[in-house]
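Single-chain item
Fold in token form
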Amino acid sequence: MEGPPPQIVAKSIDDYLEQLSKGVFQAGISWRVVDSKWPSIRTAFHAFKVERVARMTDRDIDALVKDERVIRSRPKIAAIVHNANELLALERAGGFKKHLKSLPEYEALASDLKTRFKFVGDSGVYHFLWTVKHPVPDWREWSRVHGKNWEAKVKASPAGQPRAKRPSTGMRATRRSPAGSTR
């Protein structure tokens, strides 16, 4: 994926759950893997219908852990069910969209979401809020403040390009033992 992820207009609480779930599954996994499995994940989670996902049982979770079409991480699958219940509770308590607007400062909102939802960290919250078009700080500034120098990583090893070879000096490197003598 080049550039930022696509944004959506969340039309229902189900849309929020789907976007939040993408971040959950992407934690520690390449977005390419998540993207390739997303149609199956979406089917497995009943198109992210919040009320349906919130009713999933341990037996349902265990069945998904065995399903090769999805990412089979029990903690992540259980987190989606937990997160559906949290979204539903916020929706019933006045509305999830209203809750997002109730904390106007980004860091306070991010902290709240990381506390409420499982498998949602700094990057996951930023990604989620960005994709649902909620105001977020500038990406470069946010990355700097959170100690994530993504631009340097991209510049250091561009995706899909092999590492450059060091120029040969014609001499072989020698190894040194811990004591400093040449082997």
